[in-house]
Amino acid sequence: MTQPTNETPQAPDAILVAIDFTDPSLRALEAALSWRSATAEITLLSVVDADLVEAIRASGLKVDEDPGERLAADATERLSRLIEERHLANVQPMVVHGQPFVEIVKVANDLDLDLIVIGRSGHSDVEHILFGGTAEKVLRAAKRPVLCIP
Q1: Is 4 a member of any domain?
Q2: In this structure, what CATH number is given to the domain that contains residue 125?
Q3: Which tens digits make up the pLDDT trace of 107-136?
Q4: Which residues contact 144 (CB under 8 A, 6 or more apart)?
Q5: 17, 60, 102, 144: which sits with the fewest CB atoms below 10 Å from its CB?
Q6: Does position 88 have pLDDT exceeding 50, yes or no?
Q7: Does residue 71 lie within any of the structural domains?
Q8: pTM summary value
Q9: 9 lies in some domain
């Protein structure tokens, strides 16, 4: 049995914040910023959802450019603007394509980050209830600490 200690936990040095630009993800960013050490690096990760891209393609909508590329360009622009407007230091933007929970866990592992911070939204649809949202899937799949912000 582990004995309790009076040690204060150290702030993580490398944090991944999953950003989809919703209020919960922006609250997750604020939590990470307030909790990090002065020298900590934050990776802001936005995932272009492969299922959404496929749904757009399957819809038959006529678009001038590839929807995945357009969504990635929009996410890149929004991340840059967020970093610039908030004057964030030691923050690196990253945009990847895939299933959000898979990519969040993969990037955190690949970069050997100390903590994943993710916002949790309060969806109530049937798929969310049966299978869980992205935050719940990350909590189940991650092999490192996850801070889930409501």
Answers
A1: no
A2: 3.40.50.620
A3: 999 999 999 999 987 555 544 444 458 999
A4: 108, 109, 113, 114, 115, 116
A5: 60
A6: yes
A7: yes
A8: 0.84
A9: no
What's the rounded Cα separation, in Å, for the pair 41 and 14? 5
Residues 142 and 112: beta-carbon distance below 8 Å: no
pLDDT digits (tens, 9 = 90+) for 43-68: 999 999 999 999 888 887 777 788 99
Question: Could you tell me if 133 and 121 are in contact, meaning their C-beta atoms sit under 8 angstroms apart?
Answer: yes
Instruction: Decide if 112 contacts 145 (C-beta within 8 A).
Output: no
The mean pLDDT value for 32-48 works out to 92
- DSSP assignments along the chain, one per residue: -PPP--PPPPPPSEEEEE--SSHHHHHHHHHHHHHS-TT-EEEEEEEEEHHHHHHHHHTT---SS-HHHHHHHHHHHHHHHHHHHTT-SSEEEEEEEE-HHHHHHHHHHHTT-SEEEEE-----SHHHHHH--HHHHHHHH-SS-EEEE-
Residue type (1 letter), 44: L
Report yes or no on 2 lying in a domain. Answer: no
